[in-house]
Specification:
With 116 residues, the protein is of the alpha+beta class. It is built from three helices and five strands, in the order αβββαβαβ. It has one domain: HIT family, subunit A. It binds guanosine-5'-monophosphate and zinc ion. The site of zinc ion (ZN) has 6 residues, from helix 1.
Length: 116
């Protein structure tokens, strides 16, 4: 738990969220500013600042994150139509919240991968 981290506060329940899925290690919730008809975030409960901060010890957690992400996308009904997953990393990656998270975006064609 990082005391000044928004997503750690969501994990702790001190900031509310619209929960989509939760288990011991993973939490998924609705993005507060949805960029598509479906826009949910999937995070490890443990504070890891970014993709760049994963270590070898985190391999099982990294695998679990991806596995849960595909399950959540499926429960959200996105498995037939497809969806986009995004992990923004650092300043050039456009990461705003420094707690590792995957975006799941769907419900329409998401458009070009990178803005021109
Ligand atoms: P990033 O740009 O770091 O990849 O994405 C951060 C995402 O977190 C943004 O899409 C933003 O809308 C979302 N977000 C930021 N603060 C909150 C919050 O307090 N609650 C929820 N549910 N989402 C948040
Ligand atoms: Zn955190």
């Amino acid at each position: 738990m990082q005391p000044d981290c928004i997503f750690c506060k969501i994990v702790a329940g001190t900031i509310p969220c619209e929960k989509v899925y939760e288990d011991e290690e993973i939490l998924s919730f609705q993005d507060i500013h949805p960029a598509a008809p479906v826009h949910v975030l999937v995070i490890p409960k443990r504070h890891i600042a970014s993709l760049d901060d994963l270590t070898e010890e985190d391999r099982p957690l990294a695998g679990l994150l991806l596995e849960r992400t595909t399950s959540i996308a499926s429960w959200l009904g996105l498995h037939r139509t497809g969806y986009r997953t995004i992990i923004n990393t650092g300043a050039h990656g456009g990461q705003e919240v420094p707690h590792l998270h995957l975006h799941i975006l769907g419900g329409k064609r998401i458009g070009p991968m990178v803005a021109q």
